[in-house]
Design brief:
Radius of gyration: 19 Å
Oligomer: single chain
Shape: globular
Low-confidence stretches: 1-43, 153-158
InterPro entries: LRR_dom_sf
Number of helices: 6
Largest sheet: 6 strands, mixed
Strand order of the largest sheet: 3-4-5-6-7-8
Strand content: 25-35%
Distance between the termini: 62 Å
Helix content: 25-40%
Number of strands: 8
Mean pLDDT: 76
Order of helices and strands: HHEEHEEHEHEHEE
Keywords: Membrane, Transmembrane, Transmembrane helix
Protein name: Leucine Rich repeats (2 copies)
Structural class: alpha/beta
Length: about 160
C-alpha cells in the first residue's frame, strides 16, 4: 500500500519549472492538485485552465512585471457571454488591479466572489447586477472604483 510519504516525483509532463517540481515532490499529497492545474506562464504561476477558459470566452488576461516578479494585472471579459459560473476562472487567476465584466450576464450572486478583494477597479456596466448587490460589494471593497450602470425602476442610473 502506498502512502503519502513515497519519494517518487510526480509526472508533470513538462508543465512546471524545476523549482515547482521540487516543491511538489516534497508535498506528494498536494502534488496532484498542482500538477493538474498550474503552470509557469510568462514567469509566474497561474492556473492554465482558467486562463484558457477566459480566452475561450473571448476575454483576455494581462500581466505586469516589476522587480523580477510577474503578476496578473487584469482580467477582461468585456462583451462576452460570461456568467456567474465563469467568474470562478477570474478568481483563480487573481488579478490584483482590474476586472472588466461590462456587457456580461453577471448578477449579484457572482459579485459575492469578489467580496473583500483589493482591486483598483471593477467594471460592472451593462450587467445584470442590482443596486443592492453593488452596495453590499462596495462595503467590502471601499477603495475599489466600481463602475456600474444598473437598471432602476424608472430607467437607468449611473
Amino acid at each position: 500500500m502506498q502512502g503519502t510519504n513515497d519519494k517518487q516525483s510526480p509526472d508533470l509532463n513538462g508543465t512546471a519549472s524545476s523549482a515547482i517540481r521540487i516543491f511538489l515532490w516534497r508535498l506528494p499529497a498536494l502534488s496532484v492538485v498542482f500538477a493538474l492545474s498550474f503552470v509557469v506562464y510568462r514567469g509566474c504561476i497561474v492556473p492554465q485552465l482558467s486562463v484558457e477558459a477566459i480566452e475561450r470566452l473571448g476575454g483576455s488576461v494581462g500581466y505586469e512585471s516589476a522587480f523580477g516578479i510577474t503578476a496578473c494585472e487584469y482580467v477582461s471579459l468585456s462583451d462576452t457571454a460570461a456568467t456567474d459560473a465563469d467568474l470562478v476562472h477570474v478568481c483563480n487567476v487573481e488579478p490584483h488591479s482590474y476586472v472588466y465584466l461590462d456587457g456580461t450576464s453577471v448578477t449579484d450572486e457572482g459579485l459575492k466572489l469578489f467580496a473583500g478583494w483589493r482591486l483598483l477597479e471593477l467594471d460592472l456596466r451593462n450587467t445584470r447586477v442590482t443596486e443592492k448587490g453593488v452596495a453590499k460589494l462596495k462595503r467590502t471593497m471601499p477603495r475599489c472604483k466600481i463602475r456600474v450602470q444598473v437598471v432602476a425602476s424608472a430607467g437607468l442610473a449611473e
